[in-house]
């Protein structure tokens, strides 16, 4: 379980490691995965530092000091400057999530932003004093209407107090998910800070759900952080002229996967306000029929390439890492697997990446496209 060229198999630790290593690996994976919401990548040095912490060679404070000292040297700061924020924030989030405490208040939420971006942003822990807009790909460059800056603290006070007084006793799953979605969506829409709102909201959400008794699977935030952000965008966007209403359903599906173990296909293309026909219906993979395809198959939906067929069968309804897939198909040579199985499967449209915008993302997974799912259904029929 070593680091090589910026790669560390966190899943291997999570599956096979000791409990302490499993927890550390899960937290690091989440902290690193959350950097994708702002298009940031961590350095090889951060990955190696994470390995040392997971292995117990250093504690989290030593890990953070190593990262900070690394960037104090001008010689290394220049080539890796674009990684500095991702590295420092990942280490800060890891420290925060390593504890089980939360200050569930406006002051606590603001302090959380300060702790996450300590040493990165001069305005860490400061409410913005200006109004903002942000162009969003899923909105075709339109923006969510964020709260005006004069009312930020008042809005945080209100939302957090309302949630503090809410009772989850006796409510069903659907109402529970809808309520959590509304609370998290509302906190994010306030957009209290100039930068770092999604990462702060994600960490705050993990802490809060833990504090009220949920067993939170950090992996969801690690693997689907970009979907999490875009679903927040859709939950807070309305355009009457185009006939688009607030759409919290996408965020609800994230939480249904997180808390109820459902298997909604969490890919960003489903969230676009004008999706193509292929991406117009977001499937729950757990409910995908195994006998009747969702649409009439054509000859292009199938292949005679045995390597692709074997890979499709191995992936099934899951999302798999390269390491997992190598084991499932019984191969050891990573390069040959990429050249003759994985890359052809992607090129022919049967398999796609969970992070298509970040090919070398540490949380990268591979899953079936709609075309791949049709082939998988045909294999099940046999």
UniProtKB/TrEMBL annotation:
Q: What is this protein called?
A: protein adenylyltransferase
So which domain of life are we looking at?
Bacteria
Ranges where the Fido domain occurs: 104-252
Classification of source organism: Bacteria, Pseudomonadati, Bacteroidota, Bacteroidia, Bacteroidales
- Transmembrane residues, as ranges? none
E.C. no: 2.7.7.108
Reaction(s) catalysed (UniProt annotation): L-tyrosyl-[protein] + ATP = O-(5'-adenylyl)-L-tyrosyl-[protein] + diphosphate; L-threonyl-[protein] + ATP = 3-O-(5'-adenylyl)-L-threonyl-[protein] + diphosphate
A GO molecular function assigned to this protein is: ATP binding
Q: Pfam families, from UniProt?
A: Fic (PF02661), Fic-like_C (PF21247)
Give me the stretches of Low complexity compositional bias.
288-300
- Which terms under GO biological process does the entry name? regulation of cell division
Which keywords does UniProt give here?
ATP-binding, Nucleotide-binding, Nucleotidyltransferase, Transferase
Q: Region (Disordered) spans which residues?
A: 281-302
């Amino acid at each position: 379980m070593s680091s090589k060229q910026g790669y560390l198999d966190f899943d291997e630790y999570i599956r096979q490691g000791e409990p302490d290593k499993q927890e550390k690996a899960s937290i690091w994976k989440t902290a690193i995965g959350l950097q994708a919401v702002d298009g940031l990548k961590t350095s090889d040095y951060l990955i190696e530092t994470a390995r040392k912490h997971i292995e117990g060679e250093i504690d989290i404070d030593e890990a953070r000091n190593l990262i900070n000292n690394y960037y104090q040297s001008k010689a290394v700061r220049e080539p890796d400057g674009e990684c500095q924020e991702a590295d420092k924030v990942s280490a800060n989030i890891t420290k925060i999530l390593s504890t089980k405490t939360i200050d569930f208040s406006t002051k606590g939420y603001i302090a959380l932003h300060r702790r996450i971006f300590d040493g990165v942003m001069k305005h860490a822990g400061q409410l913005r004093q200006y109004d903002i807009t942000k162009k969003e790909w899923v909105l075709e460059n339109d923006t969510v209407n964020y709260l005006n800056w004069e009312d930020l603290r008042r809005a945080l006070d209100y939302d957090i107090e309302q949630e503090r007084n809410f009772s989850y006793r006796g409510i069903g799953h659907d109402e529970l998910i809808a309520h959590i979605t509304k609370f998290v969506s509302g906190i994010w829409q306030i957009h209290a800070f100039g930068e770092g709102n999604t990462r702060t909201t994600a960490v705050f959400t993990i802490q809060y759900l833990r504090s009220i008794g949920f067993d939170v699977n950090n992996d969801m935030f690690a693997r689907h952080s970009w979907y999490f952000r875009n679903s927040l965008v859709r939950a807070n966007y309305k355009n009457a002229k185009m006939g688009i209403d607030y759409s919290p359903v996408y965020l609800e599906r994230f939480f249904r996967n997180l808390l109820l173990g459902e298997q909604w296909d969490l890919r960003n293309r489903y969230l676009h306000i004008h999706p193509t026909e292929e991406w117009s219906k977001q499937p729950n993979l757990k409910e995908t029929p195994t006998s009747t395809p969702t649409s009439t198959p054509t000859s292009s939906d199938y292949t005679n390439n045995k390597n692709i067929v074997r890979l499709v069968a191995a992936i099934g309804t899951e999302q798999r890492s390269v390491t997992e897939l190598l084991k499932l198909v019984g191969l050891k040579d990573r390069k040959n697997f990429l050249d003759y199985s994985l890359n052809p499967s992607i090129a022919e449209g049967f398999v796609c990446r969970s992070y298509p915008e970040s090919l070398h993302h540490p949380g990268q997974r591979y899953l079936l496209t709609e075309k791949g799912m049709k082939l998988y259904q045909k294999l099940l029929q046999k």
